[in-house]
Amino acid sequence: MSSSTLVSLPSMEPKDKNTPHLFDLNKLQREANIPTQFMWPKEDMVGTDGVFNEPLIDLEGFIKGDEIATGKAIELVRTACTNHGFFQVINHGVDADLIQAAYREIDAIFGMSFDKKLSFVQKPGTQVGFSSAHADRFSSSLPWKETVSFKHRGMNSESDVVDYFTSALGHDFENAGRVYQKYCEKMTELSLVIMELLALSLGVDRSYYRNFFEDGTSIMRCNYYPLCKNPGVTFGTGPHCDPNSITIVHQDQVGGLEILAGDKWLAVPPRQDAFAINIGDTFTAFSNGIYKSCIHRAMVNEERGRRSLVCFVGCKEDMVVRPPENLAVGSSRVYPDFTWSSLLDFTNNHRRTDVQNLENFFPWLLSSQSKVPA
Length: 374
Prior knowledge:
GO terms for molecular function: gibberellin 20-oxidase activity; metal ion binding. The chain has helices spanning 25-28, 60-64, 67-83, 96-110, 114-118, 160-168, 174-201, 210-213, 281-286, 340-349, 357-370; strands at residues 50-51, 57-58, 86-90, 129-132, 146-152, 218-225, 237-240, 246-251, 257-261, 264-267, 275-279, 296-298, 306-313, 320-321, 338-339. With 374 residues, it is of the alpha+beta class. The chain has a single domain (28-317), classed as B-lactam Antibiotic, Isopenicillin N Synthase, Chain (Jelly Rolls). An 8-stranded mixed β-sheet has the order 2-3-11-8-13-6-5-4. A 5-stranded mixed β-sheet has the order 1-10-9-12-7, with no helix packed on it. Strands 14-15 form a two-stranded antiparallel ribbon. A hairpin with a 2-residue loop joins strand 9 and strand 10 (264-267). Helix 3 (67-83) crosses helix 7, helix 6 crosses helix 7 (174-201) and helix 10 (340-349) crosses helix 11 (357-370). The chain is globular and about 55 Å long.
């Protein structure tokens, strides 16, 4: 992998939590000169080399049990995940009207006053609430975006998202909570279908991975990337791998999602009928390193703001992450056992996510365990 393709992120450790500085991007978006905290080193601003054009994976036949369609889907997933960890699915069972309703609620949420957003700001060490460029955690190479994140407890919850919206944003946002409750439920359903497909593509029992995720907790995140008059110096999200298992992404018609395939950054054209699937670090470990964690980034747009809906699918936090026996014969384990909660703690509280999460995580984990009294 070319050294010019990947970035070496500065300010990797969390900033001093006693000196938070939050930016109102709605005020900054039309300024030609953006704050220096958002500027990335010039050598990191590697250009886009093409367009991602691999085949879409049609889930309809797989869901219905069609053997030919299932075989084709398995082959496409296996190829994608061993090469770069990214694929797109269509005929996924998520209604287009629900997706558009979720986008309408994004507009209402990010259209609120900055003071209102700060009333439910994300607290240090947590995963829910409003964040302005993650500036509460980091002091340089900030992403040009605002986010709102909330949890969904998989198949075991009936109203957790609604409850969050009414408690954090007020009863005026109860309908938004209902929209996202339904959306998260559909993401859970889709994630379990994807888990079955991944299992079959790896040659393990169809339900093997599904069993780890039916009662897991996922993080739903609404992203808003305001227009940026100086897009050549910053990212909407810098190059990184997701630490969770898989990520399900829907991007609006503006586009901006890019993946690293080989040594080239490829733009992923937006499709309203498709969801993008990123393999994350935890599933890389679940597959014993066979499937790659997707390196991806988000670009900003000079003319238009951009939105995306992102579901970070996670297993139970105390789940021990280890591959099935047939993927780790003898002593050929690529990664040692770990719990999802420990990796989550590492990326939430100790190090900024980048393209080497697992490589940096295990030395930290070993050091942390050695400090625990016997």
